[in-house]
Fold:
Amino acid sequence: MLMESTTASFDALNLSDPICRAVQSEKYTNPTPIQHQAIPHLLQGRDLLGCAQTGTGKTAAFALPILHLLSENPSASGSKSPRALVLTPTRELALQISDSFRVYGRHLKLKQALVFGGVSLKPQINTLKRGVDIVIATPGRLIDLYQQRHLRLDNIKVLVLDEADRMLDMGFLPDIKKIYAMTPKDRQSMLFSATLPDEILRLTKNFLNDPVRVSVNPPASTVEKIDQRVLFVDRENKGALLESVLQDESIEKALIFARTKHGANKIVKNLSRARIKADAIHGNKSQSARMEALQKFRAGKVQVLVATDIASRGLDVDGITHVINYELPNEAESYVHRVGRTARAGAVGVALSFCDAGEKGYLRQIEKTINRVVNVVDDHPYHSESIAAKRVSGIGAGKKFNGRRNGGHSAAGSSGKPGKNQNRKKFFSAKPGKRTRFKSRTPRTAVSA
Structure:
């Protein structure tokens, strides 16, 4: 459960009146824990290492104090150089962070530039020439613009590294080091991440100066309101199982994760044959195609969006009722980010993971990382008893299971053929036996940005 902080309102954080008015207009009430703990330190100019599970409001935790500090300390007359820089791993996340700055800074006269690859340089260059206060960027394009002398970083007062663990996974460390070297040493630095592997902790020693550490949840934990379940299935039956699951009427918006771009395209193709509206988003898609797919999904024109892990960080779509891991990720931290796309802003959601014989080791590592046993749904048409029978939990001393969970009866043997007496609606809604529409959002907190 997302607990509200003890702070009565955002007003108590001593943010400027224009920012408070913008927050109030979004109908946010109390700060989330990461906002409540981080913002006071950031307003004092401290460096900060923030760790919080995805969907708990990390963006607002750094966007609000940045907007406050820049508005309270105007730039020198005639200066066009940016004073705040936010680095992020993907275009999608950069766009969402930009939207958050725009919403929270609507009553301020601060300008921003959005810088990422895959699109023309010219519009970004023109924006920078007119002068900006804040730059939100992916590392590669930022370095390109800097090297072409379209951008100066010698006036940066605040530097944010968002989704730091993902940045390292994507091989951005050399670029990050270059960018840090381009900025003043006396800048204020913030590093936010949903997980804190050893590599991140080593990174903080080089890039943060005596940082305050804020961790509101155990590293790599998942939101309690996510109902997590695993379905054991033979690999060749995953497609049929997915079509069967998507017949459940409680699934209003489903985000499906595949391990590869080719796999994502194949899933969309198969679903289209079954007359299920779906689209894909991954690195091989053009920026325009990715944004079009995302907008259709947001608008409800397609029920299903199939993605690779590029969408597991930063993709923020209201009303995702279900996340389905068609293939389990080979890194447990990726699982945390994937399932965090549902149960956002205080809502509830369901995460279903299809696990074949070759993925049991991934499941075991996931359970060890999130420190909880994922419940088994065995009453589905393609249940594999042979896989379930050999399950070993990642919790405790190698605890074995018999494959029975949720009070269900085995629907099929190891053959994976459909069984009888199925009742999918009881298994795939947020509360077994009850259809849940996931509409409750009162009171709201600033966790969607």
